[in-house]
Amino acid sequence: MKIFLSADIEGTAGIAHWDEAERSHPDYREFRALMTAEVVAACEGARAAGAEEVVVKDAHDSGRNLIVDLLPDYVRIIRGWSGHPDGMMFGLSAEFVAAIYTGYHSKAGTETNPLAHTTTTRLSRLLLNGKVVSEFTMNALCAGRYGVPSAFLAGDAGICADANALIPGIATVVTLEGTGRAVNSISPARSRTLIREGVEAALSRDLSTLIAATAEAYEVVVEFGNPTDAYRASWYPGARPHGPRAVAFAATDFFDIQRALRFLLA
């Protein structure tokens, strides 16, 4: 059994400030270690469920966050950014039994995590077929393109609620909940225990119903924080202005949406 793990940091237990997520700040070192520990816990859960290999995509910021020497010997790690439209899911293919997610966070425009955003802090919202969506939404749909179920997610309360709405039955672990600029978090030790146990249980059941539903056609609307970014993005082939700070792009194939976002958000 081969499992894919996409790892972010802003939903890691205890995190509360951008300083803790940015390589240039001294606080980052502690939360890099906590992010790594949650990934290791998820890998251990997958191994207990029978995984022979876990492929981990380091999916935060530089793509170079995880302390690689702490990863188990059955793990392969994808670091950095290839430029492929799969982005946070790069390395995924149809050979994987399931995708799991750690450190995930709420979408831009919500208040359940002080670090809520979608892909970049330059966006105020990202909409797909009229609904405000998260990085998880886009990544679960990417997994669905390969026929891979999304079985487990750990992150803040907002993204866990979104994950359950998108994929009923997905196993989740709520690590924290934000109020204003504060967070109420479980301890990192508790988070690791719940993640390890949750992943093992999630991968030990029928996964066939855990694939995100597809649509016949897609329209993505990218709402930027300023009109300058929207004007620049409007020059992507097929993109069109959608109000003073937004552009829209439509396609029937979800990969075309992913490819457009690869350049619209650059």
Q: What attributes characterize this protein structure?
A:
6-stranded parallel β-sheet; Rossmann fold; 13 strands; alpha/beta; globular; 24% strand; 5-stranded antiparallel β-sheet
Folded structure, characterized:
With 266 residues, this protein is α/β, with parallel strands linked by helices. It folds into two domains: 2-121 and 134-202, Rossmann fold, CATH 3.40.50.10780; 218-264, no CATH class. 28% of the residues lie in helices and 24% in strands. The chain has six helices and 13 strands. It has helices spanning 28-48, 135-145, 157-166, 188-202, 227-233, 254-264; strands spanning 2-7, 53-58, 75-78, 98-104, 123-128, 131-132, 150-155, 171-174, 176-179, 182-185, 218-224, 240-241, 246-251. The strands form three sheets. Strands 3-2-1-4-7-8 form a six-stranded parallel sheet, with helices on both faces. Strands 6-5-11-13-12 form a five-stranded antiparallel sheet, with helices on one face. Helix 1 (28-48) runs parallel beside helix 4 (188-202). The longest helix has 21 residues, at 28-48. The chain is globular, with a radius of gyration of 17 Å. It starts with a strand and ends with a helix.
